[in-house]
Amino acid sequence: MPELPEVEAARRALEAHCLGRRIARCVVADDDKVVVAGVGRVAFERAMVGKTIVAARRRGKNLWLHLDAPPFPSFQFGPDALFEPMSVANFSDSLGKKKIGIKALLLDQSFISGIGNWIADEVLYQSRIHPLQIASSLSRDSCEALHKSILEVVTYAVEVDADCDRFPEEWLFHHRWGKKPGKVNGKKIEFITAGGRTTAYVPQLQKLTGVQSSKMEVANLEQLASSVDAEDKEADAEDNGLKPKKRVITSKAASGARKTRRNAGENEKSNVKTTEPNKDATDSNAEHGLDKPTSTAGEKSEQVTRRSSRNKVKPQASKLGQR
């Protein structure tokens, strides 16, 4: 899509070579992009033949030929960025009423006619304004810087007949194409969508201000948190094959386990009976000089086992004694 400098260069070429010439033949291209309003292609071609070109006119990004007799087209557009620029005061006041992103506003031909995608990116870069900054939130200084950049960029581009090779090397224009990572004057270029168009800007120089800056910080923190969570999940997935799975205990399961242990403890206590020593038996033992209580069943079993062992070896010991 040609922008103001390209259209102005074409107008100047027509003015230099075609004024006073008669149109001998006219062909309207069979293309859906070509629209002839209010008249068919054949009728338009016939109406142009035989007419003399009196002047080449331009308004914004639109160009038409003024002929020696009608019909010839007429259009109504916004102020021309080059020949009908708004004053700084009017420009600032107008921006203060616009509640849309500044890049989208610059592309609106009813606001300023002649600014296209690359010019919008260039003037915003040179005036250090973020493409998504709301127009009404711009400071007076930013409005003045933008107004100045528009005039300088458009005027220079027209003066060199839109020959991009002659654009200053420090312009963003030379580094914005292809959506590839690049740098301008040593600073990184990034691409976003603004005003429905791919937009090149330099984050280090073009920063959101005011409320939008705070919202951007929150958005960046949320994005950072999301990326960290994603990395943690990815790391966990990679570690699943390296470390054993942990047993997951829910609060309900933990409560049940505590209850089971408590019941087990109570049952154990109920099965253990505390027997108090028999006072009479104790006194009797004391009278007979016995300090220990009667042997338990286990002790008796052990005593029986020892006696049995002695009984087995007694006969052999007796024979040895006789010899």
Explain what the structure shows.
Keywords: DNA damage, DNA repair, DNA-binding, Glycosidase, Hydrolase, Lyase, Multifunctional enzyme. It holds the Pfam family Fpg-like_C. It comes from Eleusine coracana subsp. coracana. Residues 229-239 have a biased composition (Acidic residues). This protein has 323 residues and is mainly alpha-helical. Among the domains are: 4-67, N-terminal domain of MutM-like DNA repair proteins (Alpha-Beta Barrel); 88-212, Helicase, Ruva Protein, domain 3 (Orthogonal Bundle). It is built from 10 helices and 5 strands. It has helices at 4-17, 41-48, 88-95, 102-107, 117-126, 140-159, 211-239, 251-271, 279-287, 297-322, and strands at 53-59, 62-67, 182-184, 187-194, 197-201. The strands form 2 sheets. Strands 3-4-5 form a 3-stranded antiparallel sheet. Strands 1-2 form a two-stranded antiparallel ribbon. α1 (4-17) runs parallel beside α6. The radius of gyration is 49 Å and the shape is elongated. The chain starts with a helix and ends with a helix.
